[in-house]
Design goal:
Two copies of one chain form a homodimer.
Chain A lengths: L16 H5 L7 E4 L10 H12 L4 E4 L8 H7 L3 E5 L5 H8 L4 E2 L7 H6 L8 E6 L1 E2 L5 E2 L7 H7 L2 E7 L45 E7 L13 H19 L10 E3 L3 H8 L9 E4 L2 E2 L1 H8 L3 E6 L1 E2 L3 H9 L1 H4 L3 E3 L2 H4 L2 H7 L2 E5 L2 E3 L4 E2 L2 E2 L3 E2 L6 H7 L2 E5 L3 E2 L4 E2 L1 E2 L14 E3 L4 E3 L5 H11 L3 H17 L12 H9 L13
Parallel strand pairs in A: 1-2, 1-5, 2-3, 3-4, 5-8, 8-9, 10-16, 11-13, 12-14, 13-15, 16-21, 17-24, 21-25
Antiparallel strand pairs in A: 6-7, 17-18, 19-20, 22-23, 25-26
Helix pairs in contact in A: 2-3, 3-4, 7-8, 8-9, 13-14, 15-16
The complex binds coenzyme A (2 copies).
């Protein structure tokens, strides 16, 4: 382990996790590595959760995105988290958030470090960053994610490094650490393609800021996405057909444009759809690289992938890490500020594919709030990509909870993405191309193409009655949430068929 | 007039407005200059409206933003408009849109030309662009706005130029025409400050594409914003106090950061608030430059202003145009793609000040849809700035229609800007700083600081009852729109006081 610390003056900073964690005190703001369950600091947060059992204290925890190894669960259950940002995806933490016990700030993932840098958030008292090693200059080499780690370490008062000996040393050279220059003299960010390397392969921090080093060997936890099923395959099929059509119209080539895919089961399944597609020489400029990225490499479909983390299933993790030097020339991991930067996303013309919980007849999307009130995960980077992409696609199954809920509704109960930022919506039923359509026209193609047969007549009935009342975006405002109200009261959005006349 | 056409081979293209308009045929897509009532083509659209009286036809009309001289009214009433994008602000056109007679595509103002360039929209059959003149190379010199004129002219099959002899020749040299390079090899946009000049002072088009030139002398119509009043002065006061506080905290200097201000009465009044403020050496990187911009120049407060149009009251127009060469060294007009570009807005760290119709207890903003259904103007550039700015401020009076409506509501009836994009909300009652707060905390500061006394108890009552039900963003989904429903039915959001127990 100690040969991973190449700056010998740092060797005597190696301490136990408990001792390192003692730098973190009640009321502090702590920045930790970790992005969608990859590359999170592991030993120190566990030591914190353990300590809280005998000595209660609270912190504000800022990360890249969600943590693996049940850390958000352990920290939530130990009541360590007063505030949490900018993303999470843990059932126990979610429960605490929805109960109002943890104040959760749901943020566009590109923005958190801007807020820190401008002192609107912060200061970060302690940064805890997982690394494969420390360079001879004291540079921190991240592991399977970059997330916000670089800015946390640069801006923090103290830095704790967790050297994870299970993460292969071959990850060195994968990362591209670029920090935008300071306003008012900020220069353009020089990334002009997924392949652009514009920064350092390590996080530069003055070695004297490194307060403690912990040696650990706990692995990232495996991704929890489910394999593709009939519905997600149908969604992928509709999208491939649409993209093929765009190629025929001359609006895209078969190389497409850089692809982004959101987190979760559906987005991963959709990316798998490219394996059997006619498209080739693809590139990804995304956040999380899931199993599908490496399957696309192996299928000879993908040329290059840029992301902020690598989150894999257990078998895929083993295969990829064993072979990381072969994949490395075609991979870059960047700070999430850069992977998700509006400047770059717009410049590259990204095809953004994200997942909705529900969308409405006008194409507004709810990705976060079940029933308008209960937080699921958070907006994550979906807004960074949907707003600034060349093409913004949202996918979802047409129904949820065995058909008790329709994912296409009269009006979404919470808006994460307005109709302006939603070009294409796809369910297993079909795809609606909403580009350059007025709201009334959007409703028509959505109802005709995306809605489950169980709900189509009722949705069309709502739309017809709203149309009769008029407006640019017709609604029956007193009835717009009636499906959600009924679901709250009865568990189902529509009355059972024999009562459906009153739906 | 003819001395304004410096390329002599174009002299024989001069024709009447009617003849020029004859290039525009039923079913065509037409791109016209004009941005918030400034620099619109005038003679050709009037000729179109006149022709439609005897010969019915329909077009898709794309502009920069709203048109002056009642052109949107005339074209709407002549039933010429099948489709209209990306913005408008005319009462007659608004009526046709809300009746479903004109399909209106309400778009982020930075995005329209991207859609044209990628053939998602278009092609533009004819572009009609107002100019002060044509250079010896055939370059078109715009007038009081750039808007989308450059890309319209470059991408159109044919170009009609309206040379407006009332617009002073001194406008030459004011414009900075930069078009992003083509994907997949797009380069960073080199603008690094409001002062950056990165393009040409004219719109480059091959002279053979200029199909007709019309000479006109009709002036821009005067801006219709109302003067500051007690409420708008109070809003400005709260904002100045907040900014002063930010300076004290060391988060801003007294030079602040580049300012953007939205359209309309309230935004203009707020900008006037800077005249009496302690801030100095200010810059603007905005869209529309209103009277307040020139008042700030004259007060010695403003160093430089970049925008996409100049829209002034009648006396201000006369004064500024007479003196344009004096102002010119401190002014740039850019294509709206550049004035509103996410890349630049984020880079410069803009303080964005836009107007809401209503906002809700969580800080979601509705800027466009009265009662959730009736289009007012459109989202305009508010999303470009609110999403990407350093600080996103929304202002509004706390009540509308003499108090019959509250502009702070349980849930907005339409979402244009989600809570993620809203940092500060201000009414004449007070200011709420929402940064880094969870939804429950946002509600508390909004209810305590911004709501009109008439509505405060009722709003707090809603929030308390929602809180009791729980959730990350607590709502009583069955009651969330009850205020809007009551307003629709009775004209008032709350029952009169003696019935208020049941509110
Ligand atoms: C929206 C999101 C939750 C979907 O996740 P997924 O794994 O692809 O989709 P699933 O279909 O498995 O749905 C996840 C859960 O939501 C539920 N769900 C789906 N649609 C629903 C709806 N309309 N109403 C209520 N619940 C719904 C599912 O039933 C499932 O619940 P379960 O976990 O109890 O089984 C996820 O993509 C997300 O959090 N997105 C927001 C952040 C984001 O887009 N990030 C991308 C860049 S970081
Ligand atoms: C929101 C907007 C309409 C406000 O305009 P304004 O001139 O500053 O504000 P006013 O208070 O005069 O309000 C305009 C109208 O809206 C009405 N209004 C205001 N609040 C309202 C509310 N909560 N509900 C219903 N109507 C409301 C006013 O009564 C007034 O109506 P009237 O024209 O019949 O008198 C305007 O700023 C806009 O269109 N914004 C969206 C686009 C944008 O932000 N662009 C900026 C970059 S382009």
């Amino acid at each position: 382990a100690h040969d991973r610390i190449r700056l010998s003056s740092l060797l005597d900073k190696v301490v136990s996790a408990e001792e390192a964690a003692s730098h973190i005190k009640d009321g502090m703001m702590v920045g930790m590595s970790g992005f969608t369950r990859a590359g999170e600091a592991k030993a120190v947060p566990m030591a914190l959760a353990a300590r809280a059992k005998t000595e209660p204290f609270k912190i504000t925890l800022v990360t890249g995105a969600s943590l693996g190894n049940d850390l958000d669960k352990q920290l939530a259950e130990a009541h360590v988290l007063a505030r949490r940002l900018p993303f999470q995806s843990d059932p126990a933490l979610r429960k605490a958030i929805n109960a109002g016990e943890v104040m959760f700030i749901d943020q566009h993932l590109s923005e958190t470090v801007e807020h820190l840098r401008t002192h609107q958030l912060g200061p970060i008292n302690v940064a805890v960053v997982e690394a494969v090693g420390i360079t001879a200059q004291g540079g921190i080499i991240p592991t399977t994610s970059v997330g916000n780690s670089a800015s946390f370490a640069i801006l923090a008062e103290k830095v704790i490094v967790e050297i994870n000996t299970s993460q292969p040393m071959g990850l060195e050279g994968l990362h591209d650490i670029y920090i935008p220059t300071r306003r008012p003299f900020r220069e353009p960010i020089p990334v002009v393609g997924a392949e652009s390397r514009v920064g350092l392969p390590f996080i530069p921090v003055p070695p004297e800021k490194i307060a403690a080093i912990v040696i650990t060997s706990k692995l990232d936890s495996a991704s929890n996405v489910l394999p593709p099923d009939a519905e997600t395959a149908a969604i992928a099929g509709h999208l491939m057909e649409f993209l093929g059509h765009e190629v025929k119209k001359g609006r895209l080539t078969e190389r497409l444009q850089p692809l982004q895919a959101g987190i979760g089961t559906i987005a991963n399944a959709v990316m798998h759809g490219f394996i059997e597609s006619p498209f080739y020489d693809l590139t990804m400029y995304s956040e999380v690289l899931q199993d599908s990225t490496f399957d696309l490499f192996d299928a000879g479909k993908l040329n290059f992938a840029s992301g902020s983390s690598i989150t894999l299933s257990k078998p895929k993790y083993e295969q990829v890490m064993a072979d990381i030097t072969r994949y490395k020339p075609r991979l870059i991991l960047r700070p999430q500020e850069i992977s998700n930067h509006p400047e770059i996303i717009r410049r590259l013309g990204i095809i953004a594919i994200n997942t909705a919980l529900e969308f409405d007849i006008y194409g507004n999307v709810n990705s976060t709030h079940v029933g308008g009130t209960q937080m699921m995960n958070g907006i994550g980077g979906s807004g960074d990509f949907a707003r600034n992409g060349y093409l913004s696609v949202f996918v979802t199954k047409s129904i949820a909870k065995d058909g008790a809920l329709s994912s296409v509704v009269p009006m979404v109960s919470h808006v994460d993405h307005t109709e302006h930022d939603v070009d294409i919506v796809v369910t297993e039923v079909g795809l609606a191309d909403l580009r350059e359509l007025a709201p009334r026209e959007r409703a028509r193609v959505i109802i005709d193409n995306c809605v489950h047969p169980l709900y189509r007549d009722a949705l069309d009935d709502y739309f017809q009655r709203a149309l009769a009342r008029g407006g640019h975006t017709p609604h029956l405002i007193e009835e717009a949430f009636s499906w959600h109200v009924r679901a709250r009261e009865t568990g189902r959005m529509l009355a059972p068929p024999h009562l459906a006349a009153s739906a």
